[in-house]
Specification:
This protein is an alpha/beta fold. The chain has 20 helices and 19 strands. Helix content is about 35%, strand content about 15%. Strands 1, 2, 3, 4, 5, 6, 7 and 8 form an 8-stranded mixed sheet that branches. A 7-stranded mixed sheet has the order 15-14-13-16-17-18-19, sandwiched between helices. A hairpin with a 5-residue loop joins strand 17 and strand 18. The chain starts with a strand and ends in a 9-residue tail after the last helix.
Length: about 625
């Protein structure tokens, strides 16, 4: 990758900017998807005055190869020309900066990240994005702002670097034929899962700057000179990956609150280089490679009879590898929060083995159906047990988790967590644990909880509308507001109350006019619950769970909440049971099996009483 800047007075600047614009416009045109980037004479145009004075970053597979990707970083010197300023209008733009405590003179703009189709699996977009962020940090930016498309998950891609959407800025833009929204990043904080890469490229940035005349962009965005053609003909050099001699490489694991792992496939040169850079960085604390054992599990799960013959298993593994070195087979997964680099089978094979013991209860076809479903979970205390059980059982391939709270010491009596997680947002904690079970899950987190501002995004945005809601929050307003939205969208709701094994099922997908919470609150709406006193909140919650049916222990505790008890009593055994109950109900609902609306009790004290024993 190289970086250069073109000033307005540069004699060669206009020609070079023309080539950059043509490269960008051709990629943005995207085979006709954005027709406004094509000119009437069949050329490509993306003319923006912002190009002069901006930093331009070019990415290539080989040093002398053709440019395969590009991103632009604009400094405050050209702030009047920022795309975000034009998109919002000058007044609204300045208001947004003020809302975030930022000034015009300290805000840079990140824009025009484009990657050629054939290079989109090389990890080039990740490196270009990280390079621009690293450069902004090096240049002293206090914030980066930019517009982001949403149709192909570009906004979610930027979120992986720490960019966050600015509320109320999303709208359709005809030029891009999709919804666009403003996103903001503060370089002073972490870059989420790519912090290590941003920090590395921040240090490399000064050495990567070249004079504009040496940018190496020939006509139509091709490289200059015959040397480039030789490089392509020779093909990329493939050095072996240098793994640490033993687990426990020195270096501190990132302390930021990221939750998404980084996946490397060594057959892709960009991933290969990225993983080597990671290993060289010292950030990897432990390398775990059991892929040969996983391959043996794979072939025997397909053909259980092979287990009786080690020689047959070895032959089947050799056939499965088909000449690929074991180290390069499958996927390497980097978990930044723990510093672990783990070698796994490819996604489909990994999932086949991981869920192999589900067969006989959930067949392969049903497993595929479940992985195609999206699940929302509100409240990640009790809800964490549900989310983790869903992930283990393969119920859902995409999740949205919402909780504003962070882990405290008193949560450790019922959440699967350790003391090193204290202070971590509960959504992030659950997401990490789920992705350590299956790194290919699509998990979105709402660390501010479910609010009026995030309601629509939670139910219908991001990866798409949810198919089922697990509601486990403590706030009456949110409990009812979420059900109102679920009913309007026909989304079924399941809830566990953590007392007497209470399971609540509301099939709004089958009964669009069903009263919320089975009518226990009458005609109460979320607006009626907006400003409750603590005493009123207790009364409403007791009405929701039916105070006549709660356990004697909970009944005796109510008057002591806020006096001798800090909050509602809950036990790990009840939370674990709730995870099982909601998972069983969710699986049946999502597979179209019988699971009617209603309220059901799995009271272990009753079910395991002495007179219920089946033996004398």
């Amino acid at each position: 990758m190289s970086a250069f800047r073109v000033g307005t007075g540069d004699p060669d600047g206009a020609e070079l900017i023309g080539r950059i614009r043509e490269l960008r416009a051709r990629i943005l045109f995207d085979r006709g998807r954005r027709p406004d980037f094509r000119t009437s004479d069949g050329g490509y145009a993306d003319d923006q005055a912002l190009d002069f004075g901006a930093w331009h970053f070019i990415g290539r597979r080989d040093a002398d190869g053709p440019p395969l990707g590009y991103v632009r970083l604009s400094t405050p010197e050209t702030g009047d020309l920022f795309q975000t300023r034009a998109y919002l209008g000058a007044e609204r733009y300045e208001d947004v900066l003020r809302e975030y405590g930022l000034g015009i003179a300290e805000t840079f703009e990140h824009s025009r990240l484009v990657v050629e189709h054939q290079a989109r699996k090389l990890g080039l977009g990740v490196h270009l994005n990280a390079f621009a962020i690293g450069a902004a940090r090096h240049l002293g930016a206090k914030a980066m702002i930019g517009t982001s498309g949403t149709a192909d998950g570009q906004d979610r891609f930027h979120e992986r670097f720490g960019f966050r959407p600015v509320p109320g800025t999303r709208r359709y833009v005809a030029r891009y034929t999709e919804d666009v929204q403003i996103m903001l990043y503060r370089p002073g904080v972490s870059a989420d899962e790519f912090t290590w890469l941003v920090e590395q490229l921040e240090g490399i940035f000064p050495a990567s700057v070249v004079p504009a005349r040496r940018a190496g962009l020939g006509a139509a965005g091709t490289p200059d000179g015959p040397r480039a053609h030789r490089a392509r003909a020779d093909g990329p050099r493939r050095d072996p990956i240098r793994l640490p001699a033993a687990p426990g490489v020195s270096g501190d694991a990132p302390a930021d609150a990221c939750w998404q792992p980084v996946l490397f496939e060594l057959g892709r040169e960009g991933d290969r280089l990225g993983m080597q850079a990671l290993l060289d960085s010292g950030a990897v604390r432990e390398v775990l490679d059991t892929v040969e054992d996983q391959l043996a599990e794979l072939v025997t799960s397909r053909e259980p009879r092979l287990r009786s013959s080690p020689e047959s298993v070895e032959r089947a593994v050799t056939e499965q590898l088909a000449g690929v070195a074991p180290q390069e087979y499958g996927t390497w997964v980097w978990y930044p929060w723990s510093g672990r680099l783990v070698h796994l089978l490819p996604r489909e094979e990994f999932r086949l083995v991981r869920t192999d013991r589900n067969r006989g209860r959930i067949d392969r076809a049903q497993q595929r159906r479940l992985l195609g479903r999206r699940v929302g979970v509100i409240g990640l205390s009790v809800g964490s047990s549900a989310a983790l059980t869903f992930a283990m059982e393969g119920i859902g391939g995409s999740f949205k988790l919402a909780d504003f709270d962070s882990l405290s010491v008193s949560n450790l009596n019922r959440l699967r967590a350790g003391v090193h997680h204290l202070g971590l947002n509960k959504c992030v904690l659950a997401a990490r644990q789920m992705l350590e079970i299956d790194p290919w899950l699509d998990v979105e987190v709402f660390q501010g909880g479910l609010t009026d501002d995030t309601m629509e995004e939670f139910f219908t945005g991001g990866a798409g509308p949810i198919d089922l809601l697990v509601e486990e929050c403590d706030t009456p307003y949110v409990k009812i507001a979420a059900r109102e939205r679920a009913r309007s969208l026909g989304v079924p709701v399941v809830m566990d109350a953590n007392d007497r094994g209470l399971l609540d099922v509301e099939r709004f997908d089958l009964e669009p006019d069903r009263p919320l919470l089975h009518g226990l609150l009458g005609g109460t709406t979320s607006e009626d619950l907006a400003d409750l006193t603590p005493e009123e909140m207790v009364d409403v919650i007791l009405a929701m769970v039916d105070r006549e049916r709660i356990s004697p222990e909970l009944t005796a505790s109510i008057d002591q909440i806020g006096v001798t008890l800090s909050s509602w009593p809950q036990l790990a055994s009840g939370v674990a049971l709730g995870g099982a109950l909601t998972a069983d109900a969710a699986r049946r609902i999502l597979l179209g099996q019988p699971r009617p609306s209603g309220r059901f009790y799995t009271d272990l004290e009753v079910l395991t009483a002495g007179d219920r024993s089946t033996v004398a």
